[in-house]
Specification:
The complex is a heterodimer of chains A (113) and B (111). With 113 residues, chain A is an all-beta fold. Helix content of chain A is 0%, strand content 50%. The chains are: A mainly beta (113), B mainly beta (111).
């Protein structure tokens, strides 16, 4: 296990289509986070899981966004009816314990045409 | 919402010089973390400093924290071309673990 992996790395889609991103955290990490990052900005928190429980969700996350972590291992982030404003880098991170460092994947870059 | 603000927004120096970046924040924190991000890549954790600590070192990195001024600085000594990246500070407010991030400092090391 070499780190957090995200798939796909790049996704180009047309407005109105659905997209799904997958994140595989470091295996012994029970905490998993999704962030969104646009050019020139810092990461923006989307949601957080502890094991399979989704404990926190940003108010910025519209109903078109949904995230799951069904068995407390990998996670998926789905965006329905994509809009051009959804174009961003979607970052996944995991952590083994509270108030510790985050280990990030390389991100999934979404471009909505 | 952004809690941390990095200063400067961009910094360009010669290889071998020292680089200093600053981060200011608004509310009390449990800890403050610095991350590096190469263009188009994920973030890499550099240092975590807790609210009861004043200074931490890691290799060529030195981080200070002044809770009275609500500010932190990251010093990179003897810079190298490979240090070219964006540097972000992130604050942990209440250990519920929603980090709040600044917009970053873009550092360019000229060979």
């Amino acid at each position: 296990d070499t780190g957090v992996s995200q798939d796909p790395r790049h996704k180009i889609t047309k407005r109105g289509q659905n997209v799904t991103f997958r994140c595989d955290p470091i295996s012994e990490h029970n905490r998993l986070y999704w962030y969104r990052q646009t050019l020139g900005q810092g990461p923006e928190f989307l949601t957080y899981f502890q094991n399979e429980a989704q404990l926190e969700k940003s108010r910025l996350l519209s109903d078109r966004f949904s995230a799951e972590r069904p068995k407390g291992s990998f996670s998926t982030l789905e965006i329905q009816r994509t809009e051009q404003g959804d174009s961003a880098m979607y970052l996944c991170a995991s952590s083994p314990y509270e108030a510790g460092e985050l280990f990030f994947g390389e991100g999934s870059r979404l471009t909505v045409l | 919402s952004q809690q941390g603000e990095e200063d400067p927004q961009a910094l360009s120096i010669q290889e071998g010089e020292n680089a200093t970046m600053n981060c200011s924040y608004k509310t009390s924190i449990n800890n403050l973390q610095w991350y590096r991000q190469n263009s188009g890549r994920g973030l890499v954790h550099l240092i975590l400093i807790r609210s009861n600590e004043r200074e931490k070192h890691s290799g060529r990195l030195r981080v200070t924290l002044d809770t009275s001024k609500k500010s932190s600085s990251l010093l990179i000594t003897a810079s190298r071309a490979a240090d070219t990246a964006s540097y972000f500070c992130a604050t942990d407010l209440d250990s519920n673990y929603q980090l709040i991030w600044g917009a970053g400092t873009k550092l360019i090391i000229k060979p």
